[in-house]
Amino acid sequence: MKQFKRHLVTSALPYANGPVHIGHLAGVYIPSDIYTRYLRLRGEDVIHVCGTDEHGVPITIKAKQEGVTPQDIVDKYHKIIGDSFKGLGISFDIFSRTTTPTHYATASEFFKKLHDAGKFVEQTSEQYYDEEAKQFLADRYIMGTCPHCGNDRAYGDQCEKCGTSLNSTDLIDPKSMISGSKPVMKETKHWYLPLNDYQKDLEKWILTDHKEWKSNVYGQCKSWFDLGLQPRAVSRDLDWGIPVPVEGGEGKVLYVWFDAPIGYISATKDLTPDWEKYWKSEDTKMVHFIGKDNIVFHCIVFPSMLMADGSYILPENVPANEFLNLEGDKISTSRNWAVWLHEYLEEFPGKEDVLRYVLCANAPETKDNDFTWKDFQTRNNSELVAIFGNFVNRALVLTQKYFDNKVPAAGALTDFDRETLEEMPKIKKAVEDYIEVYRFRDALKEAMNLARLGNKYLADTEPWKVAKTDMERVATILNVALQITANLAIVFEPFLPFSTEKLLKMLNTSEFGWDKLGNTDLLAVGHELGKAELLFEKIEDSVIDAQLKKLEDTKLANALKEYKAEPQKEEAQFDDFMKMDIRVGTIKACEKVAKTKKLLKLTVDTGIDTRTIVSGIAEHFEPEQLLGKQACFLVNLAPREIKGITSNGMILMAQDADGKLRLVQPNEAVKPGSQVG
């Protein structure tokens, strides 16, 4: 394997038009933090860079919606995102932004160098133009009807309802989101990076030289190559961004996907004057952590830019994760369907590591995965509390009880003692092997196996029983248990930094370093331990119910917001309406129809008679809710046999925007049989 002197780890720049949610964390930031913390524990030369991506159309749209400037938006979310990362213990060496003077200068110089070397091609094309606003429209500034699903609020680059990628020219009846007018096509000139010039080198670099890459990354790159790479625009007609720094660039800015990855370079420049050794030395290992939606930019576009420059190294790996869903539904910023990090930190104080653990244990490394609050609770209570926390607490409390809180000396080891201790180096090797190939979920599972090992050891040796007859044996058992505990403080540090810091305090010792993992003499005989505390605490049902209620409220708010009345039915004549005999009736009895989920049997006083009506409303009403209620009924509907019951009529219902049914009824009591018309 190739040997490296240093590591450069980058995490995808979060977009500064909203907070960070659990999908971002599971896809990018928790994996990158685990990897970086692991390398630091090993004593490697490593820097971890990130920052907010602060240019592009969505930010200008957000600014217009809120009546503020784009700078106000990015300032607001840079702070929220940065504070959230810090609160979760994401250990960047620098968290920068793409609006810094260093970044503006770096991106401008990068473009100008490629421009002056003739690396771009200039092309004129027709794009949508808003004649009222007097500006060209980026795809996100155009809205129309999706040709695939009929959604009349599809953007010019994607329909968020059906997920189809679009060109703005695909939209039916397009409108400008600035003025609301219909845009026209107008010629404009832009600079393009001819990706096709670099396809052969990219194919060799990825398909031949890096077959070890994750299959989703490798496969997506191959599909792009199979289609044939095309020139890609690196400028846009906008006023928010880095101005194109050459003649003819007036009114144009660098395309956000050209400027954003350069943010990794500018952040490194602000971090260290030795930035070039991390970006231009072949003995540096560069790793990009991203989500799968960014694969093309980090594996094809940005590497093409670096190849065009000629002085930079290429990433050694780009371990992209798949997507994380929430309670069976796709996470959506626009629909507020997410668990936001800054809200989690407020609502779950002291439980940062619980979220880190669950998102890593359930990481979408090979396929899309689902976060549920019940799984969150189960993993905390059944794994962190019942396995890891339980073992640590027993080991420390028993030492306090029997040996005055000091590490006892081990006597002669039994075969079981030796077999238990011999498992630790094996677990260390397994954790290392998994982390080195970016399989953090499996690495965490191995780390938890060390806690399982300790739990089993105490359960099998039962020192609380042995204490009645053989305190020398108890001393040996607890020495072994404490050495396992100290090893847990090493193996979990990349995954659960807050808990391991707490554990080190309980052990009354400082950080050991990764090379000590697997050692059986980490705590010296006679070493005084700190105060034992619970490492984790149970999460009650009421806490989870509150989070589920919060999501239900979001779902209801979305339904109300997105509600659109059904189109008018075909025209009816007055005589058609007059055929319907609609009357107010009183429900005298109500019961569920046996062996069905949806049917209720109603006994109704229609004023004409008392009759039976069967209706499929059982999922919306309990029988007792309807007793004595008045409602409107169609009484001259032809009888129909339903589950062996003859139904004579139909109860009228209104379906609300949230899908719930409501009775159609008079606003005050009337005589049964009163006609509606």
From TrEMBL:
<feature type="binding site">
    <location>
        <position position="162"/>
    </location>
    <ligand>
        <name>Zn(2+)</name>
    </ligand>
</feature>
<feature type="binding site">
    <location>
        <position position="333"/>
    </location>
    <ligand>
        <name>ATP</name>
    </ligand>
</feature>
<dbReference type="GO" id="GO:0046872">
    <property type="term" value="F:metal ion binding"/>
</dbReference>
<keyword id="KW-0030">Aminoacyl-tRNA synthetase</keyword>
<protein>
    <recommendedName>
        <fullName>Methionine--tRNA ligase</fullName>
        <ecNumber>6.1.1.10</ecNumber>
    </recommendedName>
</protein>
<keyword id="KW-0547">Nucleotide-binding</keyword>
<dbReference type="InterPro" id="IPR041872">
    <property type="entry name" value="Anticodon_Met"/>
</dbReference>
<feature type="short sequence motif" description="'HIGH' region">
    <location>
        <begin position="14"/>
        <end position="24"/>
    </location>
</feature>
<dbReference type="Pfam" id="PF19303">
    <property type="entry name" value="Anticodon_3"/>
</dbReference>
<dbReference type="InterPro" id="IPR009080">
    <property type="entry name" value="tRNAsynth_Ia_anticodon-bd"/>
</dbReference>
<comment type="subunit">
    <text>Homodimer.</text>
</comment>
<dbReference type="InterPro" id="IPR004495">
    <property type="entry name" value="Met-tRNA-synth_bsu_C"/>
</dbReference>
<keyword id="KW-0963">Cytoplasm</keyword>
<dbReference type="InterPro" id="IPR012340">
    <property type="entry name" value="NA-bd_OB-fold"/>
</dbReference>
<dbReference type="Pfam" id="PF09334">
    <property type="entry name" value="tRNA-synt_1g"/>
</dbReference>
<dbReference type="InterPro" id="IPR015413">
    <property type="entry name" value="Methionyl/Leucyl_tRNA_Synth"/>
</dbReference>
<comment type="similarity">
    <text>Belongs to the class-I aminoacyl-tRNA synthetase family. MetG type 1 subfamily.</text>
</comment>
<keyword id="KW-0820">tRNA-binding</keyword>
<dbReference type="GO" id="GO:0005524">
    <property type="term" value="F:ATP binding"/>
</dbReference>
<keyword id="KW-0479">Metal-binding</keyword>
<comment type="function">
    <text>Is required not only for elongation of protein synthesis but also for the initiation of all mRNA translation through initiator tRNA(fMet) aminoacylation.</text>
</comment>
<feature type="domain" description="TRNA-binding">
    <location>
        <begin position="576"/>
        <end position="677"/>
    </location>
</feature>
<feature type="binding site">
    <location>
        <position position="146"/>
    </location>
    <ligand>
        <name>Zn(2+)</name>
    </ligand>
</feature>
<keyword id="KW-0648">Protein biosynthesis</keyword>
<dbReference type="InterPro" id="IPR029038">
    <property type="entry name" value="MetRS_Zn"/>
</dbReference>
<dbReference type="GO" id="GO:0006431">
    <property type="term" value="P:methionyl-tRNA aminoacylation"/>
</dbReference>
<dbReference type="InterPro" id="IPR014758">
    <property type="entry name" value="Met-tRNA_synth"/>
</dbReference>
<dbReference type="InterPro" id="IPR002547">
    <property type="entry name" value="tRNA-bd_dom"/>
</dbReference>
<feature type="short sequence motif" description="'KMSKS' region">
    <location>
        <begin position="330"/>
        <end position="334"/>
    </location>
</feature>
<dbReference type="GO" id="GO:0000049">
    <property type="term" value="F:tRNA binding"/>
</dbReference>
<dbReference type="GO" id="GO:0004825">
    <property type="term" value="F:methionine-tRNA ligase activity"/>
</dbReference>
<keyword id="KW-0067">ATP-binding</keyword>
<dbReference type="Pfam" id="PF01588">
    <property type="entry name" value="tRNA_bind"/>
</dbReference>
<dbReference type="InterPro" id="IPR023458">
    <property type="entry name" value="Met-tRNA_ligase_1"/>
</dbReference>
<dbReference type="InterPro" id="IPR001412">
    <property type="entry name" value="aa-tRNA-synth_I_CS"/>
</dbReference>
<dbReference type="GO" id="GO:0005829">
    <property type="term" value="C:cytosol"/>
</dbReference>
<dbReference type="InterPro" id="IPR014729">
    <property type="entry name" value="Rossmann-like_a/b/a_fold"/>
</dbReference>
<keyword id="KW-0436">Ligase</keyword>
<feature type="binding site">
    <location>
        <position position="159"/>
    </location>
    <ligand>
        <name>Zn(2+)</name>
    </ligand>
</feature>
<keyword id="KW-0862">Zinc</keyword>
<dbReference type="InterPro" id="IPR033911">
    <property type="entry name" value="MetRS_core"/>
</dbReference>
<keyword id="KW-0694">RNA-binding</keyword>
